[in-house]
Design goal:
With 311 residues, the chain is mainly α. It contains eleven helices and four strands, in the order ααααββααβαααααβ. 63% of the residues lie in helices and 5% in strands. Helix 2 packs antiparallel against helix 3, helix 3 packs antiparallel against helix 4 and helix 8 packs antiparallel against helix 9. The protein is elongated, with a radius of gyration of 27 Å.
Length: 311
């Protein structure tokens, strides 16, 4: 931006501007500098995210289910970072447009004041300042969520208590395998509903990883309650994102957009989000929840062996 050029806010034309508009123009350079600093910091966060993902892939190269989980979380963090970057560049371009118009008005007044319809350009300037202020508010709210997601990803602790790692004893083979239409949430583990077709699909898709239905059930349809308790907001986010992205085949942007609507809704249990097969099942659950009529939820049975608010 043209730091040494006198803008409209420093001339007699400032009488056509409101106080907040003058303040906005006076702070325009500082706003731009702040974006440049934030973009630099964002690149540092990007490097940390990439390093964490690379470390995860190395440490869990023999556990495909765990890698898929961590890659899902990595994708969420990277998409959040991309959105922040896009928001910052959008703001920067708006600031640049306002700055150019600001100094153009002054230049035209100095060179052809007698014939220049400056009020028309001032009206445009005022409108662009108003739009930029509204954009700042919208982006600030959105980016606070995105930074929350990134910071939680970088600080996320996957550690599970050793007492929870006891394998659930099952005797399941292809012959006696049946659909399980129950979500069971106990003190230690969460047993997710599944269909026989889903189990068979995992075994077909990952034959080296899953030799028996028990293997699939243990790794794909069993979760630890402690992870949901430690990170309830991030759990709702990642499970909703996984639902949209991997079960509904939505884009990364739309998946994250929808997940951010759910992440801070503390009344929605993340275990249920993990259990649903599609958005329709989740939205039906939310509707029953809002009406306080969970007994009317029909997609699968929900059994709490612990307090629902603690799961």
């Amino acid at each position: 931006m043209q730091e040494n050029t006198i803008g409209i806010q420093k001339t007699m034309l400032k009488q056509f501007l409101r106080t907040n508009e003058i303040d906005f123009l006076n702070n325009l350079q500082d706003k731009t500098d702040k974006i440049n600093i934030e973009l630099f910091d964002l690149e540092n966060k990007k490097e940390l995210i990439i390093e964490k993902n690379a470390e995860d892939c190395y440490n869990y190269e023999d556990n495909k289910a765990e890698i898929r989980l961590r890659n899902n979380n990595y994708e969420i963090a990277m998409e959040s970072l991309k959105i922040i970057s896009r928001n910052l560049y959008e703001l920067y371009n708006n600031y640049n447009t306002i700055s150019q118009l600001n100094y153009l008005i002054v230049d035209k007044c100095n060179t052809s004041f007698a014939t220049y319809n400056f009020k028309e350009d001032i009206a445009k300037l005022k409108e662009k300042v108003k739009l930029a202020e509204n954009l700042e508010g919208k982006i600030e709210d959105d980016d606070s969520k995105n930074y929350y997601i990134i910071d939680n990803y970088l600080d996320y602790d996957y550690n599970t208590n050793e007492t929870e790692k006891v394998r659930i004893k099952r005797i399941v083979n292809i012959d006696n395998l049946q659909d399980n239409l129950t979500l069971k949430i106990s003190e230690g583990k969460v047993e997710l509903p599944y269909t026989k077709a889903e189990i068979q699909e995992f075994m077909k898709k990952y034959p080296d990883e899953y030799k028996t239905p028990e293997d699939v059930i243990e790794k794909e349809f069993t979760a630890y309650v402690s992870n949901y308790r430690k990170h309830p907001v991030f759990s709702r986010l990642k499970e909703t994102y996984n639902l949209c992205r991997n079960k509904e085949n939505m884009s990364r942007f739309e998946s994250l957009k929808y997940a951010k609507k759910i992440m801070f809704r503390s009344e929605i249990n993340a275990c249920v989000i993990a259990a649903v097969k599609n958005k329709k099942q989740l939205e039906d659950y939310i509707e029953c929840l809002e009406k306080n009529k969970l007994e009317e939820y029909t997609h699968f049975k929900i059994i709490f062996e612990v307090n629902p608010t603690m799961a």
